[in-house]
Amino acid sequence: MNQDTTSERRWPGAKTAMALIGGASLLFAGIAGAQGQMRDDGYSGSGMDRLEAEPEQGLIGGAIDYVKHNAYFRVGVLHFQYYGDSSRLKVENAQGLAAQAFGEGSSRLDHTGSSAGDNTTLGGTIGLFVPKTGKHLAMEVTLAPPLKLDFEVSKNAVDESLAPTTQSGIPTGVPPLGRKIGSFKALPPNLTLVYRPWVDTLIQPYIGAGAMYLYTYDTDVNNSVLNAYGNEPTLNLSKPVACVGQLGVDFSLPKNMFLTADVKYVGCAEVEAKLNDVVINSPTLSDTVGPIDVGTVSSTNEFKAVLYQLSFGMRF
After folding, report:
1. CA 252 from chain center: how many Å?
2. Contact 152, 116 (CB under 8 A)
3. Name one GO biological process term (predicted).
4. How far is CA 311 from CA 45, 73, 121, 123, 147, in A?
5. Is the dihedral of CA 8, 9, 13, 14 positive or negative?
C-alpha cells in the first residue's frame, strides 16, 4: 500500500447520446436534401445512387426518395467483450479506524484494479450511402438495447482483504470483496463512416471509423461486504466519447438481402469509476469502535472493448 499525493486527473466531458444520434440524423437529412437538388446534366452517376425525384417534389420529397433508394439496415446478435486496463484502486477520505488501516490522505492499493463484465444482446444498424461516391461510402448508426454489465474488481482485490490490519498490526478481519461489486447499464450509440472498395460483388468487405458515446446509468452496488451496514455506496462512472475502428464483410443474398459479420474496436477513452460513502464492517474491531468509514474508492480505466456482431440486413 503506497501513499499517493498526486492530484487527480481531469476527464473530458461528453455530449449526450441524443445529441450524437441527432447529429447523425441531421447529417443524413442534409445529404438527402442536397442530393434532391441535383440534375442529371450535372451528375454522372446512375441507378439507385442518383436521386430521381423531380424538382416539384421539393426538399422533403427529394429526401424521402433518396433514403428510399440509398438506405439499408441490419439486425442481429451483438456481443460486448471488455479488454480494458485499470489503475490501482485509490482510497481517499478514510476516517477513524479506516485511517489507521489506509493512512491519512490518499492511498493506492497494490495489485488491485477494476473491470467490466461482458454481455450478449441484440444490435441494429441503420446506414445511408453518401451521394457522389458510387455507394463506396456510407454513414452508419449502430444502436442496441441497454446493456446490463457487471462492475468488478480485479487481481488481489478479488480474494484478499483490502485492509487486513491497521497500521499498528491489529487484524481487522475485513473479508475479501469477491469479484462482483455491482452493476450498471450502458447505452453506447456509435456513428461511423464506412468505405467499401467493391460494391457490385457477392462478397463486399469494408472498413470504417467513427465515435461512440460511453453513456452509463442506473448503477447499483450489491456487494455483501460493502452493504454490511445497510449503507449502500454509490457508483459513479464518467461518460467520455471514445473512438471506433470497424472491419466487416457483407455477403449478398437475393432480393437485396445480405448477411454481415462486423467487428468494432472501441478505445481512446478513460473512464473514472468512483465508489462513494464506502462503509465496511471489521468483525474483530467494529463491535468496539463501530463501522470502518473508508470514504471513496476510485480507479481509472483505460477503456478498450470489442463489439462482435452477426446480422441479417436488407438494402432499399
Report:
1. 30
2. yes
3. transmembrane transport
4. 30, 10, 12, 8, 18
5. negative
Q: Which three cell numbers stand for residue 247?
A: 472491419
Q: What is the largest CA-CA distance in the chain?
A: 89
Percent of the chain as helix, strand, coil, to the nearest 5? 15, 50, 35
Amino acid at position 34, single letter: A
What residues does 270 pair with on adjacent strands?
Answer: 302
What does the pLDDT read at residue 57?
A: 59
**CA dist list (Å): 32 to 22, 128, 141:** 15, 9, 16
For 259, the enclosing helix (H) or strand (E) is strand 257-280
Domain 71-315 -> CATH class: mainly beta
Task: Give just the sign of the alpha carbon dihedral 114, 118, 121, 127.
Answer: positive
Is 285 a residue whose pLDDT tops 80? no
pLDDT at position 295:
82
- Cβ atoms of 126 and 155 within 8 Å: the answer is no
